[in-house]
From TrEMBL:
Signal peptide: none annotated. PANTHER family: TRANSCRIPTIONAL REGULATOR, MARR FAMILY, TRANSCRIPTIONAL REGULATORY PROTEIN. It comes from the Bacteria. Residues 1-98 form the HTH hxlR-type domain. Keywords: DNA-binding, Transcription, Transcription regulation. InterPro entries: HTH_HxlR, WH-like_DNA-bd_sf, WH_DNA-bd_sf. This is Helix-turn-helix transcriptional regulator. It comes from Plantactinospora alkalitolerans. Pfam families: HxlR.
Length: 111
């Protein structure tokens, strides 16, 4: 049995990829776009993504605060197609998913 090398389905990975789709962003800007995420979880997720080669951490030249920005690598950009396929699948199957969840919730509430 082979293992799956990365957690593309992690709660924040896809959202971070989408936030970086149009170009690099600083940590604070990512946090603004991903409001419910804590600084700790964002830092851990970005670090894991950097380890996997999905994002790069680039120092901002001339920044007085020693700031950095995060950008998608070419490998990270390949996830944009994967995410779009997942979105299309969800759009195509939303009615069936909703019915299944409603059925499960009704059965679960009778316990």
């Amino acid at each position: 049995m082979s293992s799956f090398p990365i957690q593309v389905g992690g709660k924040w990975t896809a959202m971070i990829v989408l936030c970086l789709e149009d170009g690099p962003r600083r940590f604070g800007v990512l946090r603004q776009h991903l409001r419910p995420i804590s600084a700790k979880v964002l830092a851990e997720t970005l670090s894991a993504m950097e380890r996997d080669g999905l994002v790069s951490r680039c120092p901002l030249i001339g920044a007085d605060d020693g700031g950095v920005e995060y950008r998608l690598t070419s490998l990270g950009r390949t996830l944009l197609d994967v995410i779009e396929h997942m979105r299309a699948w969800a759009r195509d199957n939303i009615d069936e998913l909703t019915r299944a969840r409603d059925s499960f919730d009704r059965a679960d509430s009778t316990w």
